Amino acid sequence: MENNEAPSPVLFFQTLTAYQRSSALKGAIELDLFTAIGDGPATAAELAERCQAAERGVRILCDYLTVLGFLRKDGDRYSLTKDSATFLHRNSPAYAGGAAEFLMSENLMSHFAQVAGAVRKGGTMEAGGGTMAPEHPVWLSFARGMGWMMMPSAHALAELLPLEPSRDVSVLDISASHGIWGLAVAQRYPRAQIVALDWAPVLQVARENAGRMGVADRFRTVEGSAFDVDLGRDHEVVLLPNFLHHFDPPTCVQLLQKVRAALRDSGRVAIVEFVPNADRISPPEAATFSLVMLVSTERGDAYTFAEFAQMLGDAGFAPPEQHPLPPGVSTAIIAGKG
Amino acid sequence: MENNEAPSPVLFFQTLTAYQRSSALKGAIELDLFTAIGDGPATAAELAERCQAAERGVRILCDYLTVLGFLRKDGDRYSLTKDSATFLHRNSPAYAGGAAEFLMSENLMSHFAQVAGAVRKGGTMEAGGGTMAPEHPVWLSFARGMGWMMMPSAHALAELLPLEPSRDVSVLDISASHGIWGLAVAQRYPRAQIVALDWAPVLQVARENAGRMGVADRFRTVEGSAFDVDLGRDHEVVLLPNFLHHFDPPTCVQLLQKVRAALRDSGRVAIVEFVPNADRISPPEAATFSLVMLVSTERGDAYTFAEFAQMLGDAGFAPPEQHPLPPGVSTAIIAGKG
Known about the structure:
The structure is a homodimer of 338-residue chains.
Chain A: H1 10-16, H2 18-31, H3 33-37, E1 42-43, H4 44-51, H5 55-68, E2 71-74, E3 77-80, H6 82-87, H7 99-103, H8 106-112, H9 115-121, H10 138-146, H11 151-159, E4 169-174, H12 180-188, E5 192-198, H13 200-212, E6 219-223, E7 235-241, H14 249-261, E8 263-273, H15 284-296, H16 305-314, E9 321-324, E10 331-336
């Protein structure tokens, strides 16, 4: 960062124009450009025909996506990178193009248009609690778009939860959304019964995913807020994926106490979160997530492992352990009932 | 890019959320956070008081800006990097915070919300020619915000134009905007007379800058479109900074012919542009600029040096030379009348 060279406005310029990268990628997804490129290198003229677009437009967008690292260019022909083929080709089982609808939803982008206001206030400028309002529509696009991208993390989490294979166990998935976290456990453990809890509209997505993953017979749903509904009892595992970051620590402790009461004695809570290091500026994906919570919730944050350990301890849990989940963005924090 | 590891969605995720970086920086500029940090390392609590903001909000934003490289963090205290002190502290002569108003103007952002449509059409979705419409208001925010950031490039360009110091010479600055390109020539050559041509509203900004730079007595203005007004004659230099990229090659040639007719025999045209290499995917700042032109103009583009050489030749100019301008984003292309 610091050196003896003349000061440079390049980072400043790149950052003020970074939104153009998001928009370019979203546009390419809308055009289904990555699917059009498919297996073979293709010219802008060929792609223009497949996408019913102007050759000049396709050429400029493909060059842009090549600079960003989503395509390769050899001569005048474009091809997919491995990552693009995996996540952006519509026929890929890991297709994640739908994530654009959540990550660039009008709602979330409007929050980010008010960063200064949120910093002044110390929380979201949206009336009614931001995205934590009951049945906020943004969660339907989250459930639809974000599930398949989570699959490697969800499979890794399932491996971290050795369950007794010889008896029926109950797994409660709080804020289940797309349901992937619990469904990965159901796939791994044939005698696991999954209870998915969330707002009614998103549970429809989870039910569809349960069918696709072949575990619908061991999947049931509970509609409502985790703070209000009966969580049941004697669960072997309660999953809390990407939920606690929406709340302040006292609220998290209150929910963790309720979760603890719903576990059997040998049970564990498995939290999935963006967990920054104690310096709060690394790793980048986890550290930058705090700002998402600042602008879109009243009191949410990205908490450090020490803060989660404190909350879990305050709620009566045993000291937790943490495990990074692939691809390295999220962390699992697992604690016994204590 | 390609390796044997599992595919990663990290670039995809980073790109879809890149707009959050732009918004965070814009928010910090609106809060005047960089000026509040000033000389000394400061805590979030101290900055919250100076910015009349919530400590929690300031802490989260400062951590975010640290991850991006705009701040340093030691313990719980934040300080400016050299670049931030230069471009984002309001008391710096190179303060460029106003660039956010242009680069993130509602107009430009709305263009980028329609990338797919612009690719289909092969040009801007905005009626009336996009930002090339007469007196489009976006150019006032450009003139106000982008001038001082151009100063190192403008001084470098003035050095590339050895003018006869012993006689009066006329320099025509087409699409002068903030006027910085011509004004830097006036500062360097005490007998240079500058004629700045642009829409009337932005010329007010250029006139103010001429006063600040102490060369108002050798600065006059012509209002209107370069395609319509009389360009005068016997200019020693005609400057064309960041203008030709808005048009297609035949239109550029037409203007270059008109420019050539306004030069004295020893005269030269000096074009400043984002010039990608022949591969059109490097360097990144120049290559990505094509998309800005696609979404905001009908037929504009970022042209290669070979394309500029062709246009200049078609207009009757001698073969051009090119010179990269600091900080490495723009290129000067200079050609004699031939």
